[in-house]
Amino acid sequence: TAGLIEWAIDSSAPGDLKILKDVIVGTFTGIIASIAFRFDGDFFCLKSIFMGTLYWFFYGTAFVAGILEIVSGEIETGVTRFVAVTIKTFVLSLGAAFGMAVVFTFGSDYTVYEAWVLQGPNCTSDRNFINNDLYRIIIYIVCSFAVLGQYRFPIVNWWRGVLVQVAGYVVQYKVQVGLEQDGVNSNLDTAISNILGAVAAVAASEILASVVDGMLNLYNRRILHRNNEVTKIGTFFYKITAFLVRASYYLGFGKEADLRVLNMKSDLRQQRLELHSDTHARSEINITSEQQRDIQEAIVSAEPLSTWSILMPAVYQLVPGSHIANLWFGTIFPYNEDNISEDVLMKLKESNYKASDSGQVFELLMVISTSLALGLLLGFAVTNNVSQMMQYFSHKSGLHKIYNEGDDEDREKSDNHGYRKQLMALGMDDNPMDRNEESVRNLSE
């Protein structure tokens, strides 16, 4: 319902009403959940319903982006972003409280405050579910799919996003559980787990980007016959990539243009052989306008994989948006027994309910967002230095020859991420005089 309301406001509401989108979404969420709590038995956990619904409207990554901008020297932009998303998150939580007020103000046995306190005992954690790694990971993967859909991530690339999301989450969760004492984590524990989780997400995204870029490099060289030599690893990765292109298309989520480019391989090979043959009259490679469009699209899709495009959905989930909302609910409904009737207090005592201190909102916001920002910066620093060291030792030891199908000039182009456009350009090396006998022979491979 909340999603439909947001869609309706964005698509057809006048501009003035769109400004109130967050409070309207929060209010309707509060109304629907409170109606269920009031008329269908008071055994629902309103807080879980609110946080589970409004989680998809929180601006989690903007908290971290604001801190990153502040650290990098963009003080004005970073502070503006951080304060803006803090207020927007509070507005969503306040809207849910407004919705509760609509339901419980008139004719209810409880006041709004009493209803909030009374739902507290229903919100105890199911430790058996939390401690079951299999169920927890399955639920997290399902949520990851939803996040990727929200980010409009291409379905064919979902596996990349999920791997990064799970890597960051597992490290963050395991470190947090390992540091807790008597079931409680300190702010320092939270900071450490966030930093290591962010580092793990960055490392996973960089490794994925490197592997996928390398596979696409070898694949595109084979498709357009730009490889100066043939390696076993290159052949292996080409066959895997070609299989994935066909499989994704026939499963319904791949692009037809990618399949057409793959099917052009034989035709292009024949034309290139004729072009470089001394006994054939061919003077140029002929392609149709549709093939030209497909190749141009392939050039765009073959650009180096953006680490941030894979990383941002993972950061969105690493930011505990629901926890931040819980802080705001603790501010809106601070626990005070003077505001609770005796009947409600008796119910609370029978359930052995103890109100938890939500803590200081600003301090916890700073711990969460700053630690994740520092984790991202540390992760990029570590992965960049490790990558440079691996490239250095690979070239010094000659290991790069195992998978490299180009020359030194091509490797320099790959280092500055500008090689793909030149690699895919059809007019780059079509002069037969630029080909030696061995390279022409490789075209038949």
Overview of this protein structure:
This protein has 445 residues and is mostly helical. It contains 22 helices and no strands. Helix 5 packs antiparallel against helix 6 and helix 11 crosses helix 12. The longest helix has 37 residues. It is elongated, with a radius of gyration of 28 Å. It starts with a helix and ends with a helix. The C terminus is likely disordered.
Strand content: under 5%
Radius of gyration from the CA trace?
Answer: 28 Å
The low-pLDDT segments are 407-445
Structural class: mainly alpha
Quick description:
The protein is mainly α and 445 residues long. The chain has helices spanning 2-12, 15-18, 21-39, 46-54, 60-71, 75-104, 112-118, 127-131, 133-150, 158-179, 187-223, 232-250, 256-263, 265-275, 289-301, 307-318, 321-332, 342-350, 361-397, 408-415, 419-424, 437-442.
Topology:
Elements: H1 2-12, H2 15-18, H3 21-39, H4 46-54, H5 60-71, H6 75-104, H7 112-118, H8 127-131, H9 133-150, H10 158-179, H11 187-223, H12 232-250, H13 256-263, H14 265-275, H15 289-301, H16 307-318, H17 321-332, H18 342-350, H19 361-397, H20 408-415, H21 419-424, H22 437-442
Helix pairs in contact: 1-3, 3-4, 3-6, 4-17, 5-6, 5-19, 6-17, 9-10, 10-11, 10-16, 11-12, 11-16, 11-19, 12-13, 13-15
List keywords for this structure.
445 residues; single chain; disordered C terminus; 0% strand; mainly alpha
